[in-house]
Amino acid sequence: MGRFHRHDDGTVHEHHHDGDHQHSHEHPHDHDMPLLSEDESRAELIGDHRGYETGRDRIEVLERIYDENDAAAADNRAMLDAHGVNAVNVMSSPGSGKTTLLSRTLAALQGKVRCGVIEGDIETSIDADRLRGFGAQISLLNTGDGFGGECHLDAPMVAHALAGIDLHDLDLLLIENVGNLVCPAEFDVGAHRRAMVASVTEGEDKPLKYPVMFRSVDVVVVNKTDLLPYLDFDMGLFLENLKAINPKAKVILTSAKTGEGVEEWVDWLMDADATQGWFWTPGWQAGEKEASAQHAAGDGVVYDTAEDLLNDLP
Fold this sequence. Notes:
Blueprint: E1 3-6, E2 12-15, H1 40-46, H2 55-82, E3 86-92, H3 98-109, E4 115-121, H4 126-130, E5 137-142, H5 155-162, E6 172-176, E7 193-199, H6 206-209, H7 211-216, E8 219-223, H8 235-245, E9 250-253, H9 262-270, H10 282-297, H11 306-312
Helix pairs in contact: 2-5, 3-9
C-alpha cells in the first residue's frame, strides 16, 4: 500500500514502494504533532504516523482501507474455520531463511498432516517451486500480477489465492508473506496466528527498529543459529529487546540449514490455539479423513436448508 503524503502547499502524492524494503524515508516535517487517531489499539498496531502531515484526510483513508481489509480477513477466517483449517501467517525480512524453514516444515509433516502454502512474492515462482515435491498444495500469489506489486499480502489477495487451494483436503495452511518487516504486520489476512522468522545475521536491534512487526506476532523463530560462531550476534541482547517489545511472544531457535529446532517449530504449528484445539483430536481427524474420502468420491448428502441439516443430526 502506498503512503499518502501532503506538502505544506497542499499538494498530495502517494509513495509507491517497489520491491522488498524497510521504509527509510527522510522528510522535512515537524515530528512533534500529536497522534491523530483516537483508537489507541489501532495506533499501537499500525504505528505512529505523526510524520505525515495529512491530518484527518489520511486517517480516514487508512481507516477505510483497514476496515475493508478486516472484513475480508474475517470472511477468510470463517471459510477456513468452516473447513477446519488452521492457518498461520509467516512473515520475515528478505533472506531470513523463511522458505528454507518452510521446506523443512513440509518435509517433516509430509504424510502426517495435509498442508497447503500460499506463497507470496512480488515476482517469480522461485520460492513456490522450492516448496513443491513435499505433497503440499501450493498457491502462488505474485503481488506484481494484478495487485500493484505490493510489498505485503492483504486479505483480498489471500482470498484470491484461496481459490487455488482445496480446503476440503487441508489441515494446515501456511501463508508465506512477502519479505518485509513493515507492511505485512499491518494487515490481517485471515490467519489464526502470526509467526515471524528473524535471522541472527540481521542484528540484535531489529525488535527495537521494527516494533510493529515484533509486537504483532505470536512466535519469533530465530533462524540461522548455525552461523552464531562466526558472528558478533548477542542472543541475550536480542531476547532482551524482544521482551521489551513483546513479552508474550514464544521464541524458537532454529537452523533451517541443519534442522536444529525445526521439531519445536513444527510442534508449535501443531499446537493450535484453544479456538481450534478440537480439530487436532484423533476423533475429529478420523472424521475429517472420512469426509474427505466421501467428497473425493462424490458421495454425501446435500441439504436444501440449514434447518434440514439440523433436523438430520443425531
